[in-house]
Amino acid sequence: MAKVQIDQERCKGCALCVMACPEDVLKVGESLNLSGYYYAVVIDPDGCIGCAQCAEMCPDLAITVWR
Amino acid sequence: MTALKKVFLKGNEAIALAAINAGCHYYFGYPITPQNEIPEYMAKHLPEVGGEFLQAESEIASINMMLGAAATGVRVMTSSSGPGISLMQEGFSYIAGNELPGVVVNMSRQGPGLGGINATQGDYFQAVKGGGHGDYHLIVLAPHTGQELYDLTIKAFELSEKYRCLTMLLGDAVLGQIKEPINPWKPEITAGDPDRDWLITGAKGRQPRLIKSLFLADGEMEKHNWRLQEKYRQMTANDVMVETRFIEDARLVLVAFGSMARIAKTAIDQAREEGMKVGLIRPITLYPFPAASFKNLSESVSRVLTCEMNTGQMVEDVRLSIDSNIPVDFYGRPGGSVPTPEEIFDRLQQAYSEVEQ
Amino acid sequence: MKQVVKRPASLTEKPFHFCPGCHHGIVHRLVAEALDFFNLREKTIGVASVGCSVFLYDYFAVDVIEAPHGRASAVATGTKRVLKDQIVFTYQGDGDLAAIGTAEIIHAANRGENITVIFVNNSIYGMTGGQMAPTTMLGQRSTTTPYGRDYRRDGYPIKMTEMLAALEGPSLVARVAVDKPANVKKARKIIRQAFQMQVEDKGFSFVEVLSACPTNWGMTPQEATKRVSDEMIPYFPLGVLKQKDVVDVL
């Protein structure tokens, strides 16, 4: 059981989390946040294994992972 | 204040002794002639009081180490001469922007460039008009005897803490090297207030503090600049120091600071003996400049002669400060040539002959 | 379920101003985690330098002194010589440390100052708009090497870690990268070790962190991060190049 959540306002759409995720759970979305970035979204919540590699890479502390 | 046993010291040593007695236990510096006795004295005697001496890799490193130490609130000093003081200008600007206290000693030598190691007063502009970038000032004190080197060093720490402003003791090679009897003394207060609200000590049980000089938000830097100016205005109102001699009935006033003033005193004494009504104004604070002494010259004064060991620096401030049409002559000896009392007397006599009888 | 990867207490809540994909954010987090690990926040003084990290004081909840460009190691020396029981660290970029600050870092290292230096190497000048850095790679384009860095004009990229490791003074000299989660974990360990050296009064610790600068490399964050892996790491090898187990003190 694991869960990942992205703070859409802190996210800058850098996609380092997308690159780091071994399970293709994340993707850069199609909506803009207030800063004008396409923030990352969780496209496969059940696929998350809680490895937290996304959170390790996130430069903006925008990702929370539960395991 | 506690009087201590009389000693016979070089000017440089007197400065270092005064600093230690004033509670300055941190010194960061780099060797340069003619002030090496200062770091050497500190190296020898700071460990005795549990202080810390560090010979830095350059004057740039020295002033920056001083910045880092000053931020913690301790009394700290550095010293150098021309080329090294030039290197420190960036640090001075940062220390001014950060509003940190501290004392820097400049025992002037010949310039520009590598110059030489004899005395000059060619660093006046650099000291009082800036040198580093931005709208700021140092407090600049100009002693003219060994005892004054001692006394003003202690005063420098007090003033720098009072105003959170870097204070420069501006001496020269001659003052640094001559040996004189000194009456050392210890002041009552030998440290800054440990409860000042800007001291960097580690944010235990309080909000973190910040020492910086970067102000990017709209209008912030202007506000900070006016804040600094208000400090300078207060210094000018409250802490100007000047010596005057034979000024009340003087027809001709000689203006000089530091070593030049010391030599000029002999010439003035001789002039008085020969019936010339000559007086002396000796600025002790070069910044804040004793402009009031020149605005309030007595009615009798009809001519001023400024004597400096440079090509004409303080004379500009004398001219700026004089409120009337009194002519200001200049006698300058740059490049390490130290005049004799006779040479000054001759020039004095020449200027006096111009005075309306 | 338990939360994994929390915001360290030594960081403030302020969102980072860094560009998307800039690795400063990762490095800030790792340094803050080290401070948290040893419970150092209230006794730490950070010395900020000049570059993209100039706003360090907005992000670290510690006392901070701003140093002139290149001088952080000297400022830190002054502070640590007075506050011997506090933790003093500098955080410097490749211009600050390897260009204008070369004298200061070498001598702080040589004296074995009991401070921790974090050196973020992104092989370019970020804040000022992408000029050549001492660590810019041969052939790399920048605004002052528009035809690519040429060793005949600009010399070779400087390897600060190797240079400092050759000195007697330092106690820990290491290079890490944050291009992949596995390397981030290794970096965390070594940065923690660096602060541990200071906590234990074991002398000078230095960690170079290879980082990406997508904006000034003209790349996407993913491309830039890959460049660290493929181009920078082969030239700037990772590892602990020097570690004193027994520190010789007077």
Describe this structure in words.
The complex is a heterotrimer of chains A (67), B (357) and C (250). By secondary structure, chain A is an alpha+beta fold. In chain A, 15% of the residues lie in helices and 30% in strands. Chain A is built from two helices and four strands, in the order βαββαβ. The mean pLDDT of chain A is 97. Chain B has helices at residues 11-21, 37-45, 59-70, 82-98, 124-128, 146-163, 173-177, 220-238, 258-273, 291-295, 314-321, 341-354; strands spanning 2-3, 7-10, 26-29, 52-55, 76-80, 103-108, 139-141, 167-172, 179-182, 185-186, 210-211, 242-245, 252-255, 278-283, 285-287, 303-308, 328-332. In chain B, the strands form four sheets. Chain B has a seven-stranded mixed beta sheet with strand order 4-3-5-6-8-7-15, sandwiched between helices. Chain C has a single domain (24-243), classed as Rossmann fold. Helices cover 36% and strands 16% of the residues of chain C. In chain C, strands 3-2-4-5-7-6-8 form a seven-stranded mixed beta sheet, with helices on both faces. The radius of gyration of chain C is 17 Å and the shape is globular. The N and C termini of chain C lie far apart (51 Å). At the B-C interface, α3, α4 and β11 of B face β2, β3, α3 and α5 of C. β4 (63-66) of chain A pairs antiparallel with β1 (3-4) of chain C, so a sheet runs across the interface.
Entry keywords:
heterotrimer, A: alpha+beta, Alpha-Beta Plaits, two-stranded antiparallel sheet, C: 250 residues, alpha/beta, Rossmann fold
Report the C-alpha radius of gyration of chain A, rounded.
11 Å
- Proportion of residues in β-strands of chain B: 15-25%
Quickly count the domains of chain B: 2
DSSP strand count of chain B? 17
Quick structural gist:
The complex is a heterotrimer of chains A (67), B (357) and C (250). Chain B has helices at residues 11-21, 37-45, 59-70, 82-98, 124-128, 146-163, 173-177, 220-238, 258-273, 291-295, 314-321, 341-354; strands spanning 2-3, 7-10, 26-29, 52-55, 76-80, 103-108, 139-141, 167-172, 179-182, 185-186, 210-211, 242-245, 252-255, 278-283, 285-287, 303-308, 328-332. Chain B has 357 residues and is α/β, with parallel strands linked by helices.
Topology at a glance:
The complex is a heterotrimer of chains A (67), B (357) and C (250).
Chain A lengths: L2 E4 L9 H5 L5 E7 L5 E5 L10 H5 L5 E4 L1
Antiparallel strand pairs in A: 1-4, 2-3
Chain B lengths: L1 E2 L3 E4 H11 L4 E4 L7 H9 L6 E4 L3 H12 L5 E5 L1 H17 L4 E6 L15 H5 L10 E3 L4 H18 L3 E6 H5 L1 E4 L2 E2 L23 E2 L8 H19 L3 E4 L6 E4 L2 H16 L4 E6 L1 E3 L3 H5 L7 E6 L5 H8 L6 E5 L8 H14 L3
Parallel strand pairs in B: 3-4, 3-5, 5-6, 6-8, 7-8, 13-14, 13-16, 16-17
Antiparallel strand pairs in B: 1-10, 2-9, 7-15, 12-14
Helix pairs in contact in B: 1-2, 1-6, 3-4, 9-12
Chain C lengths: L2 E2 L19 H14 L6 E5 L7 H4 L3 E4 L5 H11 L4 E7 H5 L3 H9 L5 E6 L29 H4 L5 H6 L6 E6 L3 H19 L5 E6 L3 H4 L3 H15 L3 E5 L7
